[in-house]
Structure formats: C-alpha cells, structure tokens
Design a protein that fits this description.
single chain, about 0% strand, mainly alpha
Length: about 140
C-alpha cells in the first residue's frame, strides 16, 4: 500500500468515526430530553466540523500537481471558508432559541480534533517507514 492509499484509508476512518459520533449525538438527542439544547448545539457544531474535515482533506490536491502560489491561494481560501462556516455556526447557535452556543463551538472543534488525531498516526508512521529524512545525515 503506497502513501496515497494509506492516507485515503485514514480519511475514510475519520469519516466513519465522525458519522458514528454524529449518530451517537442523535441518539442522545432523542433519549435525553432534558439536555436537548446542548445536543442541538452539538449537532449544529458537528455539521460545521464535518465541513472542516471536508475542506481540509477532500479539497486537498493529491493528484493534480498543484504547487507554489496556486497551492498557497487554495489553502488561504480554505482557511477563509472555514472561518465563514465558524461564524455561520455561531450566529445560528446564538440566534436560535434552544441551541447552546458553547456546545456548538465544541462540536465545530471536534472536526479539527478528528483531523489532528486522524492524521497524527499517519504522519508518525510515514516518518518511521521512509528513510528519506535520514539519508542526508
């Protein structure tokens, strides 16, 4: 298995874990009526967090050979769209009654946590398995 296939396998794993977490939040929303406002916020934040995962991984340039200024501009546009989605999630959470804005922010940040923890193991294994880093020393 090459690095791209390993990376895509890791991304699919992150998507499955995110879907399971969203489903678990939905079950908690249905079962625990007393904390429904918290679950509403968490579900709203998880939708924003799903966009974070999409924009950081799926909009990556694995096979198109994009580099240099164009790659930088693409990264800046991705950062801008993630900021716009964060503002949208927080505005909806604050303006909608029955939605906890704090849990909406936590749900949004879960997307970044999935990216970090999901790709941390990939990056660590990549450094161990490729001797390219140590060849020049």
């Amino acid at each position: 298995m090459n690095e791209v296939e390993s990376f895509l396998l890791r991304v699919r794993g992150m998507a499955v874990v995110g879907a399971v977490l969203a489903a678990l939040t939905g079950v908690c929303w249905a079962v625990f009526g007393a904390i429904r406002a918290d679950m509403n916020g968490l579900l709203l934040g998880e939708v924003g967090g799903a966009y974070v995962v999409y924009s950081m991984v799926r909009q990556g340039h694995l096979k198109d050979g994009l580099e240099g200024k164009a790659l930088f501009a693409s990264g800046m546009m991705g950062m801008l769209t993630r900021l716009v989605v964060l503002v949208a999630v927080m505005v909806v959470a604050v303006k909608t009654p029955g939605v906890n804005p704090i849990t909406a922010l936590v749900g949004y940040l879960l997307g970044f946590a999935f990216i970090f923890f999901g790709l941390y193991g990939f990056a660590r294994n990549r450094v161990k398995s490729s001797g390219e880093i140590f060849k020049g020393k």
